[in-house]
Amino acid sequence: MSLLPINALYDEFSSLVNHKNLVVESETGSGKSTHLPVWAAEHGRVLVVEPRRIACTALADYLSTQHEQTVGDDIGYAIKLDAQYTDKSKVVFVTPGIALKWFMEDRLVDFKIVIIDEFHERRWDSDLLLSLLKLHQQHRLILTSATMDSTSLAQYIDADVLKSKGRQYPVTHRYISTHSQDMPSNKDLEVRILNILMSLSAQNEHGDVLIFLPGKKEIQQCIQVVRSKFQDVLILPLYAGVSDDIRQQVLTPSGQQRFVFSTNVAETSLTIPNITVVIDSGLERRTHQRNGRTTLSLQAISKANVSQRSGRAGRTQAGTAIHMYGEFAPLEKTTPPELQREELVEPMLAAASCDFVLRNMPFLEVLPMASLSNAELKLQAMKALNEQGEITDYGRRLFPLPIDTLFSHMLSVIIGKAEKETIVDLVSALSVSNKLYSISKKQDALEEFTRWNPKGCDLITLISIVRGHSCEGVIVDKELQSEARKLSIQIRDELGLPDLEVSSRIKREEVLLQLVEKLPELVFVRREKRKEAFGNEKQEVLLGRNSCFPSSYEAALVFDQFSLPGRGSKQTLTIATALAPIDLSLVLNSGLAECRSGEVINQDGEFKIIHEYFYANRKLKTEFVAPDNTDNIAVILNQVDSGLLMPKLKEAREKEIAAWKLYCQLNNKEVSSVTFESWFKEQLEALGVSSIDEMELFDETDFVFHGIPEWELQDFLDSYPQKVVLPDLVLSVEYFPRSKRILLHYHKGQRKGDVKRWELPSWSGWKLQYKKASRTVDIK
């Protein structure tokens, strides 16, 4: 290998690695990702944990080529859906997810040394893996860090710190902004980038250019604009889902000038040859907690990211970093760790699968208590964890599946072979990193799609794409389709289901029926006034801008969603991205709707009670039914309340109940929460009354409220009246014992002036006030 700054550490590294954990701090371009694994392999088998799949495959390819070997011999890799290594491979590059799965299976017994590369990125799975290895204490740990505090990290794992210089070539920095403190912005992003590239072209800049953008959407928009102006330049995208062919074109030098449009996957571990200019938009898409949910939003990068991106320009020659923001923009120092800004459901289940309780594990930062509690509640509701936070047998079946926990749970509750196949293909489609398909906007294509999928059901569309069936109106991302198919094949194999090529028919109705019954949280109904919004008992989602959900359906199962920050500082918008329309009758028949007994009506001498069915605060159905034994109590209450039965009972008892509550307050007793309705219902149940006819056996004196002792009641009512009658004025009285205040409310009367103290009861020691409409005055 060529000499790089990291080579200066070889002797010290070799002398320490057998008896000390190490933190290797070096700037980008030092060669740590390519040299440290080879050095470590001189002392034992090495597992190298890389934060991204593309880095795993690229580094394994590069090192195998350097050693004139085939990938999978001495140096291999294992990523989701792809692996090339053997038990004899000395170095194996893996993603953190694979490393966690292997740790769960055998505690990584076949590896002596574990290198966690680019640890400063602070992914949740890397943080969790390090905590597990720290507790296990059976491996030599080597962490590489370009931009974080190496001292605190070394203290955390009891390690020595080795430092290396970084890039070999100087990098000139240019800032394009109107003010030195301008923050990164996505306004007119593609136009601004085009102008920079045109300027570079005018300056005869012939080197390759790396442009950092926040996501695939922005990459595609910029490529579309730039391609029309630069026909002689090789324009390449680089993000997590690009094909192997495109990745090879990015990593292989070309005689043609190249513009590489990349997300932050190019920030670390990868060396793209011949890059002389980096254009940094200063933006990334990052998750964070908002109102208890993980939301994805466009945000400014940290100063650590700036350093990483700039360093790409000085890897193989002198370069220039062009920053599309002010030199003194107030950027964060580092990006907060994922464990601090995301839900903890996945980390908690992963820790439990390795027989550890997440809240008891040591981390560099204390985990948020609210996030821990929310994750525990969700996993316990799934029955994946018990009350002590330990994994259940069901939880152990969920974790090994290569999909999110919530999708695993969806798959696990479904009964029936064909039904399971349906869900396997659905969650495989939902698990790819980007949107699997889009619908053509051409009218003919839309009509063809409607004929092909008349219900506009995303379940049908997604499963059909995974199974290789589609229609002219559906534009499929072939790379993502291939990834989804591989995932389906893997899960089918693990569950012993038929091969993808011989899939059973899609059991849509049967699956939806089971999901409504077993996962009612997926059931949403349309808001009556805001037709684009759907709600369940806990949250609201919005239809995406390009959703094909039919306007004729009022309910849906929502399989997938993502959250975005709204306009307000605390507002969160949640977009439903995969829906299956269902009939409201399915919601009603499942028993999810709450039945509320309403008004009692008399139809030609026959009583009927109104039953209203609500779900997510929307009334789904109203019906008039003959009262049953439960409703008969409501009928009697209604008749008493309206004065048609025992006309004086309610007023008299409400007066006694109000007096009793005040009596308790004045005598420092616990104040009762009793109401006339709750008390009278108890009386009817105690007497065994269940019909109007039986009420003829009783009169008002049979229903006695036992509150203030009978011999005190009248004196108390005289001292603390609930109504005061004055000339031309009737007042209702409200008492506030704690503040010794009485508020007299205008009830009725023609008096225009205010109330005088002398015409009221004595109420010695109380402050008196009179309120009419919105006006309140003190009575003196």
UniProtKB/TrEMBL annotation:
<keyword id="KW-0347">Helicase</keyword>
<feature type="domain" description="Helicase ATP-binding">
    <location>
        <begin position="13"/>
        <end position="166"/>
    </location>
</feature>
<dbReference type="Pfam" id="PF00270">
    <property type="entry name" value="DEAD"/>
</dbReference>
<dbReference type="GO" id="GO:0004386">
    <property type="term" value="F:helicase activity"/>
</dbReference>
<protein>
    <submittedName>
        <fullName>ATP-dependent helicase HrpA</fullName>
    </submittedName>
</protein>
<keyword id="KW-0378">Hydrolase</keyword>
<dbReference type="GO" id="GO:0003676">
    <property type="term" value="F:nucleic acid binding"/>
</dbReference>
<keyword id="KW-0067">ATP-binding</keyword>
<keyword id="KW-0547">Nucleotide-binding</keyword>
<feature type="domain" description="Helicase C-terminal">
    <location>
        <begin position="192"/>
        <end position="362"/>
    </location>
</feature>
<dbReference type="GO" id="GO:0016787">
    <property type="term" value="F:hydrolase activity"/>
</dbReference>
<dbReference type="InterPro" id="IPR001650">
    <property type="entry name" value="Helicase_C-like"/>
</dbReference>
<dbReference type="Pfam" id="PF00271">
    <property type="entry name" value="Helicase_C"/>
</dbReference>
<dbReference type="InterPro" id="IPR027417">
    <property type="entry name" value="P-loop_NTPase"/>
</dbReference>
<dbReference type="GO" id="GO:0005524">
    <property type="term" value="F:ATP binding"/>
</dbReference>
<dbReference type="InterPro" id="IPR014001">
    <property type="entry name" value="Helicase_ATP-bd"/>
</dbReference>
<dbReference type="InterPro" id="IPR007502">
    <property type="entry name" value="Helicase-assoc_dom"/>
</dbReference>
<dbReference type="InterPro" id="IPR011545">
    <property type="entry name" value="DEAD/DEAH_box_helicase_dom"/>
</dbReference>
